[in-house]
Amino acid sequence: MGFVKWVPIIAAYLGIFFIVSSFAEKAPYTSFTKDATSATKTEYFDYIIIGGGTAGCALAATLSASAKVLLLERGGLPYKNPNITHMMGYLSTLRGTSPSSAAQQFVSTDGVPNQLPRVLGGGTAINVGFYSRASREYVEEVGWEPRLVNKSYKWVERKVAFRPQVIGWQAAFRDGLVEAGVSPDNGFTYEHLQGTKIGGSIFDKSGNRHTAADLLEYADQTMITVYLRASVHRILFKTVPGQKPKAYGVVFRDSKGNNHTALLNRKGTSEIILSAGALGSPQVLMLSGIGPAHHLKAHKINVVLDHPMVGQGMSDNPNNVVLIPSPRPVENSLVKVVGIADDVGCYIEAVGGFFASGVLSTDQTLIQSTLILEKLAQPFSTGYLELRSNDLDENPKVTFNYFKDPRDLQMCVKAMEIIGRVVESKAYSIYRYPNTTFESVMQYTLELSGKQQTHSLEQFCINTVRTIWHYHGGCQVGQVVDSDYRVMGVNSLRVIDGSTFINSPGTNPQSTLMMLGRYMHNSNIRLL
């Protein structure tokens, strides 16, 4: 009798499971990813998401559960490119120079080379893969609800996060950090904790990369359309005197140069969501007529709304490295261990083997090396972004003003001092040559980098500053968007990506960007 009683409930559960499963599709999503050349002249959707990157893929998957969603991505799929799909292709991807490369090259006005993604999955398809959550203090500061944040992180982690194996020099690096005073040893955790820890990775045990694009496996394939190689040239607005401009559609161009229009359905909840990243989102806003009026007029762009703070508050977390030759072989390894020195304001990480030498040189004889780096957690220096032209395909001009604020330089010196203690630690001694000192590896790094020799830590920081690709700002909360990520002064338009951040969350922002895409529907900030 007991079993009979439960039969209807079990049947109902299995029925729901079958329905949900039947609408989900595994990558590479042949039913709903299409080249933009196949788009019709005009189509209608409940939500139009511009940018299939770290946040955009999570947003699209979530919203498709109960709305008709269009995701527009200017790049292609990550799944058929072995340089993207496997760890060993990381440097090849990062060095791509083709206009269709997954990593697009640009140089800031500061003279620092950089990259931005052009591929479904965004930065998660071209980065070093380290996975770590934002701190509880960060979550509290930005006003997110902790329980839903945790729930959203777990949703992401079921698809893309893995526990890495830490052996050899990575284990020595971990022990060296603790010996250098970055304590305690917190073991493996996704949480952001003062001290040294093993974090997660989006590379699985076989070295295969899992990107934000994998989150589209959660999507309802009957409710989502993804157009690839679709460049959004402007957002369309309805303007009525005395009322806020209202976004109602976008114009995008396919790879053959043909224009297409996507429009919002006439529902009160329909919106356009910009998720094009810290460079792309402010650029698209400006090209659409939202930005500093004098700057838009200089580029002959019709001003929809004078918004002086669009493009302001740009920040990149400075990164400095030292290369340490090793007397013994080191395994090829990207970031697995991090020293979180919140008391100093920096994070210490390392890569080894092919990846270490490849950062500074293409000389294959240097493979037997490790590279230790620091990232400033919350730089005080900020800059700005401007258009070069009214062509979306031309990267904007961006200035980060590295070390303009002297407090950043002070933090860099303290971070380099920690690295010095790690290099000279007993734990790390088997991975450096006898009599190697921190001073000697500094000079070696300067020589390989083609930089002027110096014995000053301050000057070393200035001479060797690099990007760690965690740039953010340009559409900051409280300046361009409100606390619900709505563009202030405009209806039916939000920005949800790293351009809204005032500070980069944690050691690597990718986990939090993916989380945010999910969180925005689960939270009280209802998108539906």
β-strand percent reads: 15-25%
Relative helix content? 25-40%
The class by helix and strand makeup works out as alpha/beta
Quick one: biggest sheet? Answer: 7 strands, mixed
Total of DSSP H or I helical runs spanning 4+ residues: 14
SS elements, strand count:
26
What is the terminal-to-terminal distance?
A: 43 Å
Per the principal axes of the C-alpha atoms, what is the gross shape? globular
Strand order of the largest sheet: 8-9-20-21-22-19-25
Low-pLDDT ranges: 1-21
Assembly category? single chain
Radius of gyration: 24 Å
Mean pLDDT: 93
Give the key terms.
seven-stranded mixed sheet; 28% helix; alpha/beta; 528 residues
Structural notes for this entry:
It is a single chain. The protein is an alpha/beta fold and 528 residues long. The chain has 14 helices and 26 strands. The strands form 7 sheets. It has a 7-stranded mixed sheet. The protein has a 6-stranded parallel sheet with strand order 1-11-4-3-15-26. The chain has a 4-stranded mixed sheet with strand order 2-14-13-12. It is globular, with a radius of gyration of 24 Å. The two termini are 43 Å apart. The relative contact order is 0.18. The N terminus is likely disordered.
Short description:
The chain is an alpha/beta fold and 528 residues long. Helix content is 28%, strand content 22%.
List the helices and strands and how they pair.
Layout: H1 2-22, E1 33-35, E2 42-45, E3 47-50, H2 54-63, E4 69-73, H3 82-85, H4 90-94, E5 103-107, E6 113-117, E7 130-131, H5 136-142, H6 146-160, H7 168-179, E8 185-188, E9 195-198, E10 200-201, E11 224-228, E12 231-238, E13 246-253, E14 259-264, E15 271-274, H8 277-287, E16 290-291, H9 293-298, E17 305-306, E18 312-314, E19 318-325, E20 337-341, E21 346-352, H10 354-360, E22 369-376, E23 383-386, E24 397-399, H11 406-423, H12 438-449, H13 457-463, E25 466-467, E26 493-495, H14 510-522
Parallel strand pairs: 1-11, 2-14, 3-4, 3-15, 4-11, 8-9, 15-26, 16-17
Antiparallel strand pairs: 5-6, 7-10, 9-20, 12-13, 13-14, 18-23, 19-22, 19-25, 20-21, 21-22, 23-24
